[in-house]
Amino acid sequence: MLCCFHAISVVCTVRCQKFLISRVGEDWIFLILLGLLMALVSWVMDFCIAICLQAQKWMYGGLDSNVFLQYLAWVTYPVVLITFSAGFTQILAPQAVGSGIPEMKTILRGVVLKEYLTFKTFVAKVIGLTCALGSGMPLGKEGPFVHIASLCAALLSKFMSLFGGIYENESRNIEMLAAACAVGVGCCFAAPIGGVLFSIEVTSTFFAVRNYWRGFFAATFSAFIFRVLAVWNRDEETITALFKTSFRLDFPFDLQELPAFAVIGIANGFGGALFVYLNRLIVQFMRKQKAINRFLMKKRLLYPALVTLLISTLTFPPGFGQFMAGKLTQKESLVTLLDNRTWAKQGIAEEFDYIGHSEAWKHPQVNVFVTLVLFIVMKFWMSALATTIPVPCGAFMPVFVIGAAFGRLVGESMAAWFPDGIHTDGTIYPIVPGGYAVVGAAALSGAVTHTVSTAVIVFELTGQISHILPVMIAVILANAVAQSLQPSLYDSIIRIKKLPYLPELGWGHHEYVQKYNIRVEDIMVRDVRYITLNCSYRDLHNVLLTESMILLGSIERAQLQALLSLQLGRHRRLEYIRERALEEKKRLSVVSNVSSENISQRASQEVRFQISTEDSSLSPSRPVPQKPLKPALKRPSVVERATEIPTGPHDHSGIALKNLFCASPDTEALEVREPCPR
Predict the structure, then answer these.
(1) Which residue has the higher pLDDT, 420 or 30?
(2) What spans are recorded as compositionally biased (Polar residues) (predicted)?
(3) Which of 202, 332, 541, 587 lies in the 20 to 30 Å Cα band around 242?
């Protein structure tokens, strides 16, 4: 009875284990874990970033009695954080530098980038990004979060492979990485729909429909948990939009305002192309100046420290920062820019109605238009410069804020030109500058990234779709202008980093249009050096000595030399000679039994070989008969002498090379003493 009970319990245990393993290995479990993990990471990072920014303001406010000490506190704090972020990232995982979206575009096209999806990179990305954003520099988190989500997906795939072998499949991993890109945007802005669409536009030229539900499921779950954590921490009363607006719904805009929205789209198209060009110009300038480049390569932390010092000095509130709302963080700036209340009716400073953070835009000598223009111009080049710092950072959020500021400028101008609003059917509808800010934010971010899904992200960020028509018009016009002038920011970074990626050929460029007429045969190289299983030693030797710029694969020289030594070393040659001698003896014994006539004939046609290390090839002691030699008599050519290959100053494989290319005296003696088959 005990044995039967034990057997039944074992069988039940095994079946339960198989059931759990099969269930845990399913996609929905993986996607839930991915969404939950990313929501926790996003919320913890936001919490730490808020503490860092609050600490800077606390230090600045506590020293209000001395302006110089205030300046030191305002400048030193971000310099220390940025320097730590750059140093920590450089030491632990340099692959974590930058946005991460260009690398993910490359990986999702099948290119393997070493160390980009490892745990070290994950730690460096999270800690480095937290410090970089906590410094208050004009940097974003959306791009790095796409990389972080992909890192989480890759690490989860390795963990889940313990339960089911399906996650060891490369195709399945690519599908999960595509879903992870959507999760990164979804948990960053609490915008699951826009996150999925943005990930499709940014990272994929071909998107499998079967991945659609994975992206939506994981992104929605992640955004839900992210907002629930905000309610749990009492940051919000309930689950709401991240930047909730309260525009009027009955008549959000008039048709006569559509030309103004179109102007915002076109202007932001030129602005987006200019931002991409300026970012690339800064990087190329730093690389072309060889003296500066060599100096900065030795002092890697000097460049981020100097850039941070410059930007912090210009945003110092008692200094130049008072003219550009310098004391506001990016989140506070965006909240004030999206406010639906008009700051001025005639542009007169005394008529401003400032509440809360809007006070930062007030200045006794300068009106709101000058403040907004200075904010746009200064933040524009500051953001383009800051995104070149070697720390984990993105550019979406700074560009989003700049676009909102430009839209706000147009909206305030419309409010000044039409102080009583636009009359329609006897009803007065005042201008809503916050609506213009929403349109500008979507247009500029769409122009820089070459995406239309920024419109959907804006709707989810604000919680309102009242301005859906102007937003779509502006985003489409901005994309049309930007795509005809410059590549997207991510494609530009791919070109700068020289990542193995083929960009799309757009019809807007004449150079691209001409490339449609170029065929593969016009650029292909026909004389390609290669090795096969049937290659001789001489062929392989020539390939090693010949330099080729065509990448067909990769193998370390030490490995190749070790393989050659294993196949052509002293012991292998001795063994080969013995085998051939035995085969010849067996063959001759069989032939001798046929007839004495054949034996004498074979003796007359005997061929003798003289093995010598002085010649580069074997030479027969008698003239070669007309009958071609059999393959068995050709094989001793493995002991021929070859030209030496220089191995450099560190001769790690000197013994292997001697065994490979030189015949030792013992080997020669043995080979000479070996009887020649007759």
Answers:
(1) 30
(2) 610-620
(3) 202
Contact 104, 144 (CB under 8 A): no
* 437 close to 337: Cβ distance less than 8 angstroms: yes
What pLDDT does 23 receive? 56
Give the least confident one: 233-247, 351-365, 516-530. Answer: 351-365
User: pLDDT-based confidence at 547, cuts 50/70/90?
Assistant: low
Q: Rg of the chain over CA atoms, in angstroms?
A: 35
When mean pLDDT is compared across 428-442, 505-519, 520-534, the lowest value belongs to 505-519
H or E stretch covering 284: helix 258-288
Q: Which residues pair with 428 in a beta bridge?
A: 423
In this prediction, residue 197 has a pLDDT band, given cuts at 50, 70 and 90, of: confident
DSSP state of 349: G
Position 626, amino acid: Q
CATH of domain 7-233: 1.10.3080.10
Q: Which of 469, 467, 477, 460 is nearest to 434 (CA)?
A: 467
Closest CA to 149 of 113, 181, 108: 181
Q: Is the pLDDT of residue 650 over 70?
A: no
Which pair of structure tokens corresponds to residue 123? 């730690």
Length in residues, the chain: 678
DSSP strand pairing (427-429 vs 422-424): antiparallel
How many whole angstroms separate alpha carbon 378 and alpha carbon 362? 17
User: pLDDT tens digits, residue range 384-394?
Assistant: 999 989 899 88
Tell me whether the CATH fold assigned to 7-233 matches the one assigned to 255-345+357-497. Answer: yes
- Helix (H) / strand (E) containing 610: strand 609-610
Kindly report the pTM of this predicted structure: 0.71
**CATH code for the part of the protein at 255-345+357-497:** 1.10.3080.10
- Round to whole Å and give the CA distance between 545 and 541: 6
What is the phi-psi region of residue 428: left when phi exceeds 0, alpha when psi lies from -120 to 50, beta otherwise? beta
Q: What average pLDDT does the chain have?
A: 76
**Beta-carbon neighbour count of residue 575 at 10 Å?**
11
**Is there a contact between 215 and 199 (Cβ–Cβ < 8 Å)?**
yes
Domain boundaries, the chain: 7-233, 255-345+357-497
- Residue given tokens 């607006």 in the structure block: 245
Dihedral of CA 206/210/212/215: which sign?
Answer: negative
Structure tokens at 360: 């930062």
Tens of pLDDT, residues 415-424: 888 777 776 6
